[in-house]
Automatic annotation (TrEMBL):
Pfam families (UniProt xref): BPD_transp_1
Subcellular location: Cell membrane
Protein name: Glutamine ABC transporter permease
PANTHER family in UniProt: GLUTAMINE ABC TRANSPORTER PERMEASE PROTEIN GLNM-RELATED (PTHR30614:SF7), MEMBRANE COMPONENT OF AMINO ACID ABC TRANSPORTER (PTHR30614)
InterPro entries, per database record: AA_ABC_transptr_permease_3TM, ArtM/GltK/GlnP/TcyL/YhdX-like, MetI-like, MetI-like_sf
Gene3D superfamilies referenced in this protein's UniProt entry, alphabetically: MetI-like
Record lineage: Bacteria, Bacillati, Bacillota, Bacilli, Lactobacillales
Organism name: Lactobacillus nasalidis
Keyword Metal-binding recorded: no
């Protein structure tokens, strides 16, 4: 297996880098989008709560592959928008993950006592100021462990890029396996690369949970 890794090091390294890049971009945008919809799910306005709920329910219940294929195949067919496999996979992963993050953050917001919002409003803060400076900081402290699990799942789900020629770790592993006919060692190496990404994050989240951050 070491000889296979040495002979195909650049191929695996390219896939590893693309997986990291896709994961980081998706982490950033899914956290922003998800947090935004989580806030909308808790606002007093029924219309915006409904919009957020529809968004979350749609993307939580559609397979990631379908969401990705919409951006990779459907949009280029009916619009001038042309996306690479990497771009389509990253966008699909960001939107898909944001729905789960929205539910996680929403639960954190609703776990903060209602007295916190009332106290902030009585001190002259607007609803959005109270949400930004009082509610959200407490909510994120509460949801760190489940958010960590969502981030780990996002990294593993980045393998969706393999279905759209996104040159990620799984895609490169497929190439190595088909070229060398060493299927099992190739995918074992792919699994080890994923462990390099996910295990430190998992242990760090466990550390934060125990520390009570």
């Amino acid at each position: 297996m070491l000889s296979l890794l040495e002979a195909n090091w650049s191929t695996f390294l390219l896939g590893f880098w693309n997986t990291i890049l896709c994961s980081l971009i998706s982490l950033f945008f899914s956290l922003i989008i998800g947090s935004g919809f989580a806030i909308l799910e808790t606002v007093p306005n029924k219309f915006w709560r409904g919009v957020a709920k529809v968004y979350v329910e749609i993307f939580r219940n559609i397979p990631l592959l379908v969401v990705t294929m919409v951006f990779y195949l459907v949009l280029p067919t009916y619009t001038p928008l042309k996306l690479t496999g990497f771009q389509a996979g990253t966008i699909g992963l960001s939107i898909y993950s944001s729905a789960f993050i929205a539910e996680t953050v929403r639960s954190g917001i609703q776990s903060v006592g209602t007295g916190q919002m009332e106290g902030a409003r009585s001190n002259g803060m607007t609803y959005w100021q109270a949400m930004r400076y009082v509610i959200l900081p407490q909510a994120f402290r509460i949801v760190i462990p489940p958010l960590g699990n969502q981030f780990v799942n996002l990294i593993k789900n980045s393998s969706i890029l393999a279905f759209v020629a996104g040159f990620d770790l799984m895609y490169q592993g497929d190439i190595v396996a088909s070229n060398t006919f060493q299927t099992i060692p190739s995918y074992v190496l792919v699994g080890l690369f994923y462990l390099i990404l996910t295990l430190p994050l998992s242990y760090y989240m466990q550390y934060l949970e125990k520390k009570g951050v």
